[in-house]
Amino acid sequence: MWLPLLGLILGISLGLLTDIQIPDVYESYLSIAVLAALDTLFGGIRAQLQQVYDDKVFVSGFFFNIALAAALAFLGVHLGVDLYLAAIFAFGVRLFQNIAVIRRIILTKWSERKKE
Amino acid sequence: MKKTVYIRFTFILLIVGFMLAVQYNTVKNPETRDTRDVWAIRQELAKETELHSELLSEVRVLEQTIGKYENMMYESPKIALNETVGQLKKEIGLVEFNGPGLTIKVEPSLESIVVGQAIDGISPELLVRLINEINRFKARAVEVDGKRIIYSSAIRDVNGKTTVNNLAVKTAPFTIKVGTSTFEDAKKMYNQLEASAIGDDFYIDNLKLVIGEPENNVKIAAYDQSISKQFLLEIPGGES
């Protein structure tokens, strides 16, 4: 359980310590990539809890979603349409859904354990 | 099976954390762009170069002093110390100044004489402005109506009279003497004062600024009052 948390802390400190900054132009790409990554992450947690987790689906989904989101944002910039909004909307909705499912599963497990 | 899942999650979370941190960095510290144009940068460079040369000349003077100390160490340290004291006194204006400079006369303006207006004394603000202007052109010694200006000189209004070093300044006409390092500096100052707008400010107060030609020898009296020391204390004789 603590291992993923350690990974998160390590990643954040690595990012803060290296003090990397990206140009303003690419800021929207990164934000959408972060959103995609979070979406995949919560999807993975949900799948794990529902016992339908698949390694390949998870890892490929992570990278594919990020790439797709960035590509959509890129296309949007060049077409003059804010396509990245579509990605933000899709990922946002899925994020909420996934979190809701995770919450329910945890609640069910908790109440079951209480009954026992 | 379970372990590989954790490792995968750790790896993904590492990337997520990194991306979050980078995003945070980018949002929190927006890159400040240098928007100065070439001209502004050149001006800044010129200013720094001037400072550099000033510092260099200061270093040279100090090195000379060190050299003098070293030479005289075995002969007579007293002479070297006296020389330094003399130089410091000269710098802050406790010694009479003899050297190149120029004399500025402050006179009532012709119009006010013709019209018959009462001539008021110079206002402290105007005098401060003039002295700032003079110091901007690297004056070494300044004397206003016989009163030497030093680092602690106060120019202020006392009961409606403008005073310098607590002594009242005459109503116009009176003279201001300015000493410079070299005759070239005096010439430069003459030109700069002629070109500056300070004369117009005097004209508003019904005064006329007559800037004299640069001279080779201007005599400026020493500061004759005692200087109040705030931090330095004199050691009684024999204890040193």
Automatic annotation (TrEMBL), chain A:
Keywords: Cell membrane, Membrane, Transmembrane, Transmembrane helix. The keyword Transmembrane applies. The chain crosses the membrane at residues 28-45, 57-77, 83-106. Its main location: membrane. One of its GO terms (cellular component) is plasma membrane. It is a multi-pass membrane protein. It is found in: Cell membrane. InterPro entries: DUF1290. Belongs to the sbp family. This is DUF1290 domain-containing protein. The lineage of its organism: Bacteria, Bacillati, Bacillota, Bacilli, Bacillales.
Automatic annotation (TrEMBL), chain B:
This is DUF881 domain-containing protein. Belongs to the UPF0749 family. InterPro entries: DUF881 (IPR010273). Keywords: Membrane, Transmembrane, Transmembrane helix. It comes from Psychrobacillus vulpis. The chain crosses the membrane at residues 6-27. Pfam families: DUF881. Gene3D superfamilies: Protein of unknown function DUF881.
